[in-house]
Each structure stands twice: as structure tokens, then as C-alpha cells.
Design goal:
The protein is of the alpha+beta class. It has a domain of 346 residues: Methylamine Dehydrogenase, Chain H, CATH 2.130.10. Helix content is 27%, strand content 28%. The chain is built from six helices and 28 strands. The strands form seven sheets. A four-stranded antiparallel sheet has the order 1-28-27-26, with no helix packed on it. Strands 2-3-4-5 form a four-stranded antiparallel sheet, with no helix packed on it. The longest helix is centred in the last third of the chain and has 76 residues. The relative contact order is 0.07. About 6% of the residues have low confidence.
């Protein structure tokens, strides 16, 4: 029986077939590695006051427990136990780390689905519209946000078209509440339509405005709609007041105004009858008003109190000294008020503003372009937009992003430019209305932008977060860009100056050469006529000889 079993076993072993079976890739989908495995946790502990320490050791005695701990740590069995347990603890830590990675991954996936992406396309939407309540519509020429209350907006209304103001046109300007669009919160009643209007940055109830007739006045919003004080007629500007800027001081009662009459006047609301100082924008610095540039915009940076800048009707930016600080430097002559000029536009400069992060670089908006300048270069701008088909009427920098600025055009379009992303075309172009947009002002607390139109309509827009959120390394990148373009501009400026010198020297040489050529021609001409005369005389002599011989 045993022999038969052995034989049958040998036969069965000889019938075994060995074969190599490759893995099936389709079965890999059935294998799921789940890092989030469920496991039971059991808490176990030991009360050291009952059995943790030996009976001979007092648990409250620090020296005794320390000696016993050192003794145990020197034991070989204790060291082996620790080494054995360390592998188990390491496996538990790896498992916990895998669970943590899985949870963080799932959390990020959920956040990406629920939260909006920061890389989304720039966008804007109109959230409210404020219309001029009068029948005869006027342009919203200036906008001013309340310094503290983000829901108050002061709007100046006037008609800037010369002698084309509609009949029975109202002179009123208004203070609007951005949450109430059907009725203004307060009415300001000037003696002439206001071209500009500005809140006092410290005393938020005070507003100062410049009229179309050149008169200056200020209002107290806590009192009546009538101005508290007005400038005297004999001391007014002789043209529309396009810009007013408050000067930083302890009292914050001083400001200065710019007008197309070629003057910059300095005022104090405590004495509004006449200005405290005058500055004439005469390029020859002879204070001749007939030759002065007409001012259409102005810029003053608090960190640069010694100077300010004025944009003119002639397309020239004039950098001027602050006469309030020039009193201390008596050595300077009074006619040295103009520091330098910047030429680049072919029409009036409607907007002029320094970059809030890099004050040495400033933005100008005029004719069909917007340009970025550096104070170190006078001949040309360091960056410029393309030539648009319509005129640009206003613009400003973003208060939160150094690479973003805004422009409005005559066709009712708002353009948002990001020079880090694209320097040729705007990042966002939005058709706000069908009429021309005359003014723009930004409120940086709630990413709000308001635009005033030719028919007195003020549109309030909310920008997407991507346009009002500072990006990583944006300041450094913009600084490098401005420095690079400034160096390039300086190189071009030096080449331009060298070309002018060569041209002047060539013109002098050409002038001398022309004089030599004229002398040579005169001498040749004289010799020619002398030769003709000698020839005629010789012919006359020959004729006489022939006659006498006959």
C-alpha cells in the first residue's frame, strides 16, 4: 500500500507544469491604496502614584526618581526594548504623515472648488449709477471721495465747452451717498459751475471748489449749501480752475489752485479774499502772463514738499518749486520758480499723477496716449501706450498695485493697464456708457472705481480682486522695469544730445562752406564776364584791322 502511494505521488509530481505568467495591467485598476484607513484607538494609561514607581522610591522626590531613571536607562534590557519599540513608533509616524498629506490634499481640492481663483480674468461690473437731477445735463468734471466715509462721493458739474452751455443750466454740484442713487445727499450752490471739488483730508466736513469763472470757494457740509467764503473778484483766476490740492500742514487750511490763465495761486481758507502767493508758468521765467502755459492738471507729492508739477494746455509738464519752502532759501531769485519741463504730448494734459509706490515716476494722460515718465529724463517718456482712435480725458494710478493704472476715453471706454502683463494693450477694456468719460477716481477700501461722463452720469464700478490685490514680488519687478527703462531713456537722451551737437557743428561747417562757394561763384562769374569783355574787344580790334586793310 505504501509502495503504491509513493508511486502515485511521483507520477503526480512529474505531471506538474511550470510556466511564467506575466502581470495583467488591467487588474491594476482594482488595486486601490487607501491612505485614509480606519483604525481603532484605545487609550491606556498608568497611574504612577499607585504602581509606576517602586515602593522604595518616593515619586515626589526629584533626586530619587532621577537616580532611578539613570539606573534603568543603563540596563541592557531597557535599551533593547527601546530599540524594538522605535521601529513600531516609526511605522506609526509614517502612517500619521500619510494621513496628514491625504487630508491636506483633500482640503486643498475642496478649497480650489469653493474659493475663486486669484488667476481669474480681470473683470468689472457696474453696481450703481448716479444721474444729474437737472434737465439741462452737464459734465461730471471732478470726483472726490470722502476721506473717512466710504459711501460719500462729491461730484462737481459744469460745461467745459466754450460758449456752448445749455440755457437755464444749473450751477449746483452734489454730494452723493453711494447706496442711494435716486437723490443726492447734499447740494452745493456756487456762484459759477464748479470744475473741481476736493474734500479736506483732515477736517472732513470742509470742501473747496474752483469755478468756471476762476473763483474759489469753500463749503462746510455741516452748515448750509451756500459757500462759507469766496475769493474776491479782483484776485480770482482769469480762467477755469482745473485742479485744487490741499497742502499738508498742522492746521490743513492751505491749498493751491491751477488754471488756464497760466497762474498757480496759494490760498488759506481762513483768509479767502486774496491768495497768499502767486506763481506764473512763464517758460522764460519773466513772469509774463501773456507767455504763460495754461494749467489743466497738477500733482503734489507729500514726500516731495519742495516741488510740485503742472500739466499744461501745450502738452508740457512743468516742474516748479514750492514758494512756501523757498522763503528759507533767500539766495534763490524769485524768477527761478520753474525747475525743468517735460515735452511729449501734442495736446492738453488732462491727468498728471506720481506713482504712489515710486514717486520719481509719474503718469500723464493727454491727446491719444498715456505716458510714464522718469524725473531723471526730460526729453522723452520711458513708456507709452499705443495711439488710440479717440482722445484720453483722464487717468490715475492704482493705489494698491504699482503696475496698474486706469484711463478713460471720449468714446465712453474705461481701460485698465497692467504694465507687468502687457504694455501694448489694456488688460481690461470696458464700455461704461455711450458718451465721453471726463473723470475717474478710485476708492481703494472696497475696490471701487467711479467714472463721470459728459452728460453728468457717474457710474460706480466694482473691480475683480485680481486688479486690487498686490501680487508676489510686484514691487520688485516694477522697480526693476522702471530702472531698466530709465537707463535706456538716458542712453537715448545722450545719443539725442550727441546728434544735436553733430548737427550744429555740421551746420556751422556747411555755413562756412556755403560762404566759400558763394565767393568762388562770384569770382568765376566775374572772370567769365571779364573774358567775354576781352573777347569782344579782340573781335572789335580784328574787325577794325580788316576794315583798314580793305
Amino acid at each position: 500500500m505504501d509502495t503504491e502511494c509513493i508511486e502515485s505521488r511521483n507520477i503526480s509530481e512529474s505531471m506538474v507544469v511550470q510556466e511564467d505568467i506575466p502581470p495583467d495591467p488591467s487588474l491594476a485598476t482594482d488595486l486601490i491604496v487607501n491612505a485614509e484607513t480606519e483604525s481603532e484607538t484605545v487609550s491606556r494609561g498608568m497611574n504612577h502614584t499607585e504602581g509606576g514607581w517602586p515602593k522604595t522610591i518616593n515619586a515626589d522626590d526629584i533626586e530619587a526618581t532621577g537616580r532611578y531613571r539613570k539606573k534603568v536607562q543603563k540596563d541592557v534590557s531597557y535599551q533593547h526594548a527601546v530599540m524594538k519599540m522605535s521601529t513600531v513608533v516609526e511605522d506609526c509616524l509614517k502612517q500619521s504623515k500619510a494621513d496628514t498629506y491625504s487630508e491636506s490634499y483633500q482640503t486643498k481640492r475642496v478649497e480650489q472648488k469653493t474659493k475663486p481663483s486669484h488667476q481669474q480674468e480681470p473683470s468689472a461690473r457696474i453696481i450703481n449709477v448716479f444721474r444729474d437731477p437737472n434737465k439741462a445735463k452737464r459734465a461730471a468734471t471732478c470726483l472726490s471721495w470722502h476721506p473717512l466715509d466710504n459711501h460719500k462721493l462729491a461730484v462737481a458739474y459744469s460745461c467745459l465747452e466754450f460758449q456752448r452751455a445749455p440755457k437755464n443750466m444749473s450751477f449746483d454740484s452734489y454730494i452723493w451717498n453711494t447706496e442711494i442713487s435716486n437723490k443726492p445727499e447734499m447740494t452745493l450752490k456756487p456762484v459759477s459751475p464748479l470744475v473741481c471739488l476736493e474734500y479736506n483730508p483732515r477736517d472732513v466736513h470742509i470742501l473747496v471748489g474752483g469755478g468756471y469763472n476762476g473763483q474759489i470757494g469753500y463749503w462746510d457740509a455741516r452748515s448750509s449749501s451756500r459757500p462759507v467764503q469766496m475769493s474776491a473778484a479782483e484776485h480770482n483766476h482769469r480762467g477755469p480752475v482745473y485742479k485744487i490740492i490741499w497742502l499738508p500742514s498742522l492746521t490743513c487750511t492751505e491749498f493751491f489752485s491751477a488754471s488756464t490763465d497760466g497762474q498757480v495761486l496759494f490760498w488759506d481758507i481762513r483768509k479767502m479774499i486774496e491768495p497768499s502767493k502767486r506763481l506764473v508758468l512763464d517758460p522764460s521765467q519773466k513772469e509774463n502772463r501773456d507767455n504763460a502755459f495754461g494749467a489743466t492738471s497738477m500733482e503734489f507729492e507729500k514726500t516731495m514738499k519742495a516741488k510740485f508739477m503742472v500739466g499744461t494746455e501745450q502738452g508740457v509738464v512743468v516742474s516748479c518749486r514750492n514758494p512756501n519752502l523757498n522763503q528759507a532759501t533767500k539766495s534763490e531769485a524769485p524768477n527761478e520758480s520753474i525747475i525743468c519741463t517735460y515735452h511729449g504730448h501734442h495736446g492738453p494734459i488732462y491727468a498728471l499723477q506720481r506713482n504712489p509706490f515710486f514717486p520719481k515716476n509719474f503718469l500723464t494722460v493727454g491727446d491719444c496716449t498715456a505716458r510714464i515718465w522718469s524725473e531723471d529724463i526730460n526729453e522723452t517718456s520711458i513708456m507709452t501706450t499705443k495711439n488710440h482712435m479717440t482722445y484720453l480725458l483722464d487717468g490715475c494710478w492704482s493705489p494698491v498695485r504699482p503696475s496698474v493704472f486706469f484711463t478713460v476715453k471720449m468714446d465712453g471706454t474705461l481701460d485698465v493697464w497692467d504694465i507687468l502683463f502687457n504694455q501694448k494693450d489694456p488688460t481690461l477694456s470696458l464700455k461704461v456708457c455711450d458718451e465721453a468719460l471726463y473723470s475717474i477716481r478710485i476708492q481703494n477700501e472696497d475696490s471701487l472705481v467711479c467714472c463721470g461722463s459728459q452728460l453728468g452720469t457717474v457710474s460706480l464700478l466694482r473691480m475683480s480682486p485680481s486688479l486690487f490685490r498686490l501680487k508676489n514680488n510686484e514691487k520688485e519687478l516694477v522697480s526693476e522695469m522702471f530702472e531698466r527703462e530709465t537707463r535706456r531713456g538716458k542712453a537715448l537722451e545722450s545719443q539725442y544730445k550727441d546728434m544735436n551737437r553733430v548737427k550744429q557743428s555740421c551746420s556751422k561747417e556747411d555755413k562756412g562752406a556755403e560762404e566759400d562757394i558763394e565767393e568762388l561763384l562770384a569770382r568765376i562769374e566775374m572772370e567769365f564776364f571779364e573774358n567775354i569783355k576781352d573777347f569782344e574787344e579782340n573781335e572789335e580790334k580784328e574787325r577794325r584791322k580788316t576794315e583798314t586793310s580793305k
